[in-house]
Write a structure and sequence with these properties.
With about 500 residues, this protein is an alpha/beta fold. It folds into two domains: about 210 residues; about 260 residues, Nitrilase/N-carbamoyl-D-aminoacid amidohydrolase, CATH 3.60.110.10. The chain contains 16 helices and twelve strands. Strands 5-4-3-2-1-12 form a six-stranded mixed sheet. Strands 6-7-8-9-10-11 form a six-stranded mixed sheet. α1 packs antiparallel against α2 and α6 packs across α16. It is globular and about 70 Å long.
């Protein structure tokens, strides 16, 4: 009996290599092509089993960073990811003319579900992340990351069909990718207007990676960002600080005896940021983290401050990190992990836009940049530049940081906006609307990135329509598997 499991594992590992921080996207196309060919002709149970192996081989290395953050949550995430991929394989017919279309539709549907459920969605290690470095990445501007994900799959099908010399099928797949790419280029040019430019400074304070929040270290983090900001040596209009680097204690709070320095107080933090805005004569956007007044939750937000000290806008983070900022199934998880946050973060409810003296800024704080709907909220409500203050200093390795840069590139493509990403220990980046990373820091370094970015207005099709066109396509593709076109041309085989 044919043993397909080595090919299934190889397919998953090849696609894992296409995900940042590795980013070898041609291997990803080969991996998906190998998966597509491996499950061909199998019965439904075999397709599920083999696809599950592919999912495990794919998700374990690309989500390994989660183990250090939440040893209890990581295996749950791996299983969920792998089951979604297994379901996509099981929904794909073993043969028939509709098989390629159904394969694309199944993957798109499973990705859309995974990006929204469970726990609000976990859009990590996605097909679109591998696709952002491809020549057809611009398709995201047309119907968002779901279309780009589908084009990754279609390109892989072209490779699979060419390998078995099915030249007509390969040509159709290739033509589809080319047509979608042209549509993506036109999608931005037709709907976006460019306005004035602003000079920006993205601040990274530096420091060690893989650290945990500690009341005794909050001053040191703040001081590192002040030190970096004091090196700004040119005229700028906007200074962007990362998420959660202003973590003050209430005024009058006693400093624990184990701390080497006095705690950073709320009034001190506010007055020094006011002075910074005045000194650089620019808008300063800073990321704050503190306990709510009622003591029952934490708050994670960014504020914009004018050179005269006026607070012109505030945005509280809406989409929170599961197992980090809120704990799903807390009573159950607490039995297996003693390192959970004592309080959840209270999510915001307002549009993802901050009013500033340099125009409205769309905001996606940290984890939110992984979600296309958060960027759509920011740009759909008038954001002219998209900013991503983030904090990855707690994470092990650089896997999540690399994937976050890829997500920022995706949001730039989808919205046709400049994206500014600021992190305390890396990566910080300035990304053009065409997803080019113009400037990027290294991990743990202290520095300031400078750039000139354009304020843009208008909405791309991806912002206006979201994932609905691709959701409808996926439903239509899978519904077609019930019709005569889906009749198997070969007898399904099983595997052991």
């Amino acid at each position: 009996m044919d043993r397909a499991w080595p090919r299934s594992i190889a397919a998953g590992l090849l696609f894992a290599a296409a995900i940042p921080p590795w980013g070898w996207w041609p291997l990803g196309l080969i991996g998906v092509a190998l998966w597509y060919r491996t499950i061909e002709g199998m019965d439904r149970r075999a397709r599920f089993r083999q696809s599950l192996l592919t999912g495990l081989a794919w998700s374990i290395p690309t989500t390994l960073w989660m183990f250090d953050l939440t040893p209890a949550g990581w295996p749950i995430s791996v299983v969920i990811f792998s089951v979604f991929l297994a379901l996509a394989g099981a929904m794909t017919p073993p043969a028939g003319r509709i098989r390629p279309v159904a394969f694309v539709g199944a993957i798109v549907l499973m990705e859309l579900i995974r990006w929204n459920w469970p726990f609000g969605g976990t859009p990590i290690a996605t097909f679109a992340m591998a696709g952002v470095a491809t020549p057809f990445a611009m398709t995201a501007r047309l119907f968002g990351s779901p279309l780009l994900a589908s084009m990754v799959v279609v390109a892989a099908i072209a490779i699979a069909e060419a390998h078995r010399r099915a030249w007509r099928a390969a040509a159709v797949a290739l033509a589809t990718v080319i047509a979608a790419t042209i549509g993506g280029h036109l999608g931005g040019a037709l709907f976006i207007d460019q306005g004035e430019t602003i000079d920006v400074a993205v601040v990274q304070g530096g420091g060690p990676q893989n650290t945990r929040a500690d009341v005794c270290t909050t001053r040191a983090v703040f001081e590192r960002h002040m030190e970096a900001s004091e090196t700004i040596d040119r005229e700028v209009d906007l200074v962007l600080w990362p998420e959660d680097v202003v973590h003050p204690a209430p005024d009058g709070a006693a400093t624990p005896s184990r701390c080497d320095e006095p705690l950073l107080s709320e009034s001190e933090a506010g007055s020094r940021l006011t002075q910074l805005a005045a000194d650089v004569d620019a808008v300063v956007v800073s990321g704050w983290f503190e306990r709510a007044d009622d003591g029952t939750a934490n708050l994670n937000y960014s504020i914009a401050q004018s050179p005269d000290g006026t607070i012109t806008g505030r945005y509280d983070k809406v989409r929170l990190v599961p197992f980090g900022e809120f704990v799903p199934l807390r009573s159950l998880i607490e039995r297996f992990s003693g390192e959970l946050p004592a309080r959840d973060v209270r999510p915001g409810t307002e549009p993802a836009v901050i009013a500033t003296d340099v125009g409205p800024l769309g905001v996606a704080i940290s984890w939110e940049i992984f979600f296309d709907h958060r960027a759509r909220d920011a740009i759909g409500n008038g954001g002219e530049v998209l900013v991503n203050p983030t904090n990855g200093s707690s994470y092990w390795l650089t896997i999540v940081q690399g994937q976050q840069v890829a997500s920022s590139r995706l949001r730039a493509l989808e919205t046709d906006r400049w994206v500014l990403q600021a992190a305390p220990t890396g990566y910080s980046a300035i990304i053009s609307p065409d997803a080019e990373v113009l400037e990027r820091t290294g991990v743990s370094e202290q520095g300031v990135l400078y750039g000139t970015v354009a304020r843009r207005t208008g909405r791309t099709p991806a912002v206006a329509l979201g994932g609905w066109p691709m959701f409808l396509f996926a439903l239509a593709a899978l519904t077609a598997t019930w019709g005569p076109a889906a009749i198997d041309r070969v007898r399904p085989r099983s595997t052991v």
